[in-house]
Recover the amino acids of this structure.
């Protein structure tokens, strides 16, 4: 597996003048491989978003190193590296620049000097991927929150990035919209080997990732596969996080005298266990 | 406070080439003391509807009665102010509305504007900060030095400080971590019960609608298509699908369990806790039959 992005002992503070304030992130190290999907989870204020901004050079670390595509990120290579990264923030209202949906999606392509003919095709394709191709000429402020966010994602996809960073990008979507976006991201990864970093509070979204990084109070709490992470159950709840539905349900059923053999992350496993342990006689 | 919408229609940029119809023929009655969830697919008109509830938007057609105030399309409305004082709206991302030097001043701003004495406004701010789980030190801080989750709580405190009798919540927990989400939803529920509020929750979360609301209204393509009890609304998955909605996860799980055991459970469970109890009953029955 080839490394695409790594953080080595990265520390950052928004208040360097106040030495006793907790740093936004402290001593974070992680390696992300090409084509991997990493979910970063943690309570509000745990440093997730700061981490995302350090990863694409919106912020530079106070100490430690960020390496992207084999190079240490610095002010010289920042623009070249950023053209390989798409980033989608939580609130789409803060990232709209175009007067119409298609202008908005074309913005990054214009900045990157993509020829007009290619641009038209890519704008349309990106919008089709998020099912917003019916809205080419709509004005962004006439769209609802969820529609806007899908356009923002299309804008990021249009530059055909190697790395896509989603900073709570699905948190404003309705359940169906969220599923559409997540399945789009999954499909995209299969077809293009896209590396995805998603910062999320949605545990079901984190379950889709290859690995999960758990942040707590600015520090790395743990990292591992979804199975490894969710085995820690109550510890995660204490960090202000949640458990996947099937795990919550298992716990509640046990409290009500239901026999279950194991821990389950998927509903199917839970239903099977419920059957074998209680009904199958 | 009773709120009644009759045949309400609304068009943005009416009379211009950009006219866009957001609502039509909305009939909805929200009775005093109810907890109403308004659900609907993205773009179904939920947010436009919400802005009518304290006359930020006025209907282009039909009429709207909020307590004693009647607003009829095309007629001038007088004396909206007392109504606005009684209807607190927590908009999406309410922290964007924070502006004052300190958290204390920010929370006191609303009440002072409506003539509440300084001492009382300050008392309310102190109580609310505690209720919302914030340390009292934040009162003297700039709201902009707080974390996103804390800013959200301060903004909510600013609305609650007006002591509204109707609380309108537009996705109040979007972007909060799971614990913060639960704490804030529980607080709203507690206030609803203790203060006898009328609560209107606009949400994408079928789980929250099922857990907290006693009435659910579905918006679809600009109109209110169903208004009923969560038990009935979430039981009919086919109808929900028609409006591009899904039943809460717990209901979908109950259906799987029912398919497994080959019979329906005694009731439709709207929370995980309830469903676990029901399943416990069923299993004890099975054991008894052995």
């Amino acid at each position: 597996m080839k490394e695409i992005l790594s953080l080595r002992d990265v520390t950052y503070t928004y208040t360097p003048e106040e030495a006793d304030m907790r740093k936004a992130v402290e001593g974070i190290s992680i390696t992300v491989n090409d084509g991997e999907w990493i979910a970063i989870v943690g309570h509000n204020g745990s440093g997730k978003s700061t981490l995302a901004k350090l990863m694409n050079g919106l912020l530079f670390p106070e100490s430690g190193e960020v390496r992207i595509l084999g190079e240490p990120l610095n002010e010289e290579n920042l623009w070249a590296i950023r053209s390989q990264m798409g980033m989608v923030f939580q609130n789409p209202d803060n990232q709209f620049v175009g007067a119409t949906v298609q202008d908005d999606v074309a913005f990054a392509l214009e900045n990157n000097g993509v020829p007009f003919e290619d641009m038209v095709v890519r704008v349309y394709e990106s919008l089709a991927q998020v099912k917003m191709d019916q809205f080419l000429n709509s004005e962004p402020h006439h769209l609802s929150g969820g529609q806007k966010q899908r356009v923002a994602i299309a804008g990021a996809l249009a530059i055909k990035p190697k790395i896509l960073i989603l900073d709570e990008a699905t948190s404003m979507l309705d359940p169906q919209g969220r599923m559409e976006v997540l399945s789009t991201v999954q499909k995209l990864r299969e077809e293009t080997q896209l590396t995805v970093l998603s910062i999320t509070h949605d545990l079901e979204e984190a379950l889709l990732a290859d690995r999960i990084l758990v942040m707590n109070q600015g520090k790395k709490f743990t990292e591992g596969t979804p199975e490894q992470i969710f085995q820690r159950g109550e510890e995660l709840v204490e960090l202000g996080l949640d458990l996947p539905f099937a795990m919550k349900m298992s716990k509640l059923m046990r409290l009500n005298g239901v026999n279950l053999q194991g821990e389950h992350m998927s509903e199917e496993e839970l239903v099977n266990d419920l059957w074998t342990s209680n009904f199958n006689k | 406070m009773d709120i009644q919408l009759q045949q309400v229609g609304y068009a943005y940029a009416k009379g211009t080439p950009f006219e866009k119809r957001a609502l039509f023929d909305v009939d909805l009655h929200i009775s005093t003391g109810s907890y109403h969830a308004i659900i609907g697919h993205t773009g179904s008109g939920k947010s436009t509807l919400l802005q009518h509830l304290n006359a930020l938007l006025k209907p282009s057609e039909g009429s709207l009665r909020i307590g004693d105030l009647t607003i009829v399309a095309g007629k001038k409305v007088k004396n909206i102010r007392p109504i606005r004082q009684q209807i607190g709206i927590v908009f999406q991302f309410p922290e964007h509305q924070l502006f004052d030097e300190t958290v204390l001043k920010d929370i006191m701003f609303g009440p002072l504007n409506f003539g509440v004495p300084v001492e009382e406004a300050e008392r309310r701010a102190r109580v609310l900060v505690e209720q919302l789980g914030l340390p009292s030190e934040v009162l003297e801080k700039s709201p902009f030095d707080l974390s996103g989750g804390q800013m959200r709580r301060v903004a909510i405190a600013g609305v609650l400080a007006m002591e509204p009798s109707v609380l309108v919540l537009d996705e109040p927990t979007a972007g909060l971590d799971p614990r913060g989400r639960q704490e804030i939803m529980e607080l709203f529920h507690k206030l609803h019960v203790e203060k006898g509020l009328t609560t209107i929750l606009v949400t994408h979360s079928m789980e929250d609608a099922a857990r907290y609301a006693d009435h659910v209204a579905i918006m679809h393509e600009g109109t209110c298509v169903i208004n009923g009890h969560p038990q009935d609304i979430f039981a009919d998955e086919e109808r929900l699908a028609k409006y591009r909605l899904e039943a809460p996860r717990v209901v979908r799980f109950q259906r799987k369990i029912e398919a497994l055991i080959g019979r329906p459970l005694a009731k439709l469970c709207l929370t995980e806790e309830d469903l676990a109890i029901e399943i416990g009953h069923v299993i004890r029955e099975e054991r008894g039959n052995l």
Notes: Chain B touches chain A at residues 12, 18, 20, 41-43, 47, 92-93, 147-150, 171, 174-181, 204, 206, 244-246, 249, 253, 256-257, 260-261, 272-273, 275-277, 279-280, 283-284, 286, 290 (CB under 8 Å). The mean pLDDT of chain B is 92.
